[in-house]
């Protein structure tokens, strides 16, 4: 049947049909062969999904470049091989596995468990869908050697993923990603018995940590509250949406543990549904386009605060009813509130820890508001590469040094409050934010009032962030290569907007160049596989252009950081808008490159 295919492609297809035991994906490949669709077969067979943002993420379907049973098995075999090389006592410590409610997640998690069990590694498999943060929580609590969460987070319904946490309970970083990838490629043949999920489920080395971990998680969360009496008596009414994901039942329990009365659910989005039928994108970060049903539910219940989780409940969006209508907070605005509240909680709960031993963390594309608070209050602020894998590994390093880490955040509505979960956690974030709102209400103030007060005290920080969609990797590379050879080889732009805004220095974390250092080398880790260039302008504006690690996007981030003495915030916003518009038009050239803007 495959004889008409070119030899290299024929070998890959025949190998696939030999390995794959899933009737659906086998039929998908056989149909492509019957149609002689060599272009599609090359697309899905000749490449392989590579470890990116702490694991795999991609479209579901047949082929080595897709998420499917065979790829999950091969990945798990490679991971356990690498794990036993690096952590020999993994054979007794075991591994934690969780999954979300997407198509195939249940099966993928159990196929992964099958591979680990065949290698003799005990598996702590959550029996039901769970939030992503429950996996790193369990890795830490159980002393497991690693963790796997089957999820594609907020990606489209066609996608799925395989996120890996190391023994420190943080997401993996180099060199683990390349080490795992190498082990995967060394042993692609499915092991005898690995397809037998029933045998895995009945294996005595398989256990379910759900009840124990849930009890401990909620107990710690409840104990972290400043005053449950304030929570219980607040007149505030919260509306919460799970965005068709796993979060509803977990946030219900979190609210109970924290002493709050029940919240108003967005009923249409309350139950898990892998089709995500009510939203174009199952991502509350998309703002008003994803929150229409939340607005309606809140208005009907006279609720003034909306808390929105993404489908795997590791992120949290916030909206507040103002006189002018609903305000959807940006991730940077939420980060400012959480950072301020983390400091207030510290002053009440941990005053015995000297501020010089206290830390907050943010990624380099996020607001520098934590830095401004740190400078005034006397604690430390650390900046890392983009992603919680970098922030949480930095947190681990600080904890090992005896330091206290209060908070970490990324502008993409990800927040880590405390260190019970060394990852972003939308369940705890929902409760901590509700607690903050309840305490502010006792003073006659709102979350928006407090945000304005933060800016008055520490300086206004205004951002202008968005993205373009681009599926063409070659085009993306050309866009960024042009910036690195702007008019002359190895020369970056020196200004935008006809010379009105001058570039003071450039940091390129793809190549490792940084014009602000003595040796012209970047101090943050270099990631050659991802595009990321930051331009600092003479007016104190910083603009970063980068590609997403999980989606076909070119993102841009910008911020102007004012001092408390700079009170003309409107002028700062107008200046940032003009500068960012110039950067986008002159450097990304969206019209020329046919880039698709962020949907409204």
UniProtKB/TrEMBL annotation:
Protein name (record): Phosphoglucomutase-2-like
Annotated ranges, domain Alpha-D-phosphohexomutase alpha/beta/alpha: 49-187, 223-319, 344-458
Location in the cell: Cytoplasm
CDD domains noted in UniProt: PGM2
Keywords from the UniProt entry: Carbohydrate metabolism, Cytoplasm, Glucose metabolism, Isomerase, Magnesium, Metal-binding, Phosphoprotein
Keyword Isomerase attached: yes
Molecular function per GO: magnesium ion binding; phosphopentomutase activity
Biological classification of the source: Eukaryota, Metazoa, Ecdysozoa, Arthropoda, Crustacea
Family to which this protein belongs: Belongs to the phosphohexose mutase family.
Biological processes per GO annotation: glucose metabolic process; purine ribonucleoside salvage
InterPro entries, A to Z: A-D-PHexomutase_a/b/a-I, A-D-PHexomutase_a/b/a-I/II/III, A-D-PHexomutase_a/b/a-II, A-D-PHexomutase_a/b/a-III, A-D-PHexomutase_C_sf, A-D-PHexomutase_CS, Alpha-D-phosphohexomutase_SF
A Gene Ontology term for the protein's cellular component: cytoplasm
Cofactor(s) needed: Mg(2+)
Principal location class: cytoplasm
Keyword Metal-binding attributed: yes
